[in-house]
Input
Amino acid sequence: MDFAPYQDTAPETTRALSPPPANRALSPAGRNARSPPTRPTTDPFGASSLPAPNHFSDEPRSNTGFGGGDVESGRLDVNLFETSLPIRLDYEACLSYLLLPPAGGVFLLLLEHKSDYVRFHAWQSALTFSAIFVIHLIFSWTAIISWILFVCDLGLIAFLTLHAYQDADGLDRFELPFFGGLASSFVDAE
Output
């Protein structure tokens, strides 16, 4: 017997059929005159016996791929790249670092509700640059350290913006050592 899952014919066609039940009232000649038992011609696993997909829901709806709706409303077509604002996902994630950090991150946390990717970068921007702002306040008494910190801030903003833009295709998160894990835990808890 062939038990391959994708075979051309059903296994029932190659399997030997059981003999018909013996009827003691018939003579041996009458027993040979009987025709062999026949199998039903319909396929029990055919597509015609399955109900339509809208049979299981209260209202008919179609799953057309990406776009519109969310899981909470019962829609099956969830778009992971959809945002609350009419801006592309990668641009919106970059704005969390470019809009006067940490204010840009806080602004996007207030307005963005659909995209976890953008919310992660908004949390990371708000947490990181709030801590850097406190460091700026501490070292504000010296001009040299303030300028060095300012140049480091610009480099960090450029680096995080580049990662937010490039990683948006696969929704990968670039996490900073302390604040990235914290931001990720905040987004996962929402």
About this structure: The chain has six helices and no strands. The two ends are 54 Å apart (CA to CA). Confidence is low (pLDDT under 50) at residues 60-71. Helices lie at 28-33, 89-98, 103-111, 116-138, 143-166, 179-189.
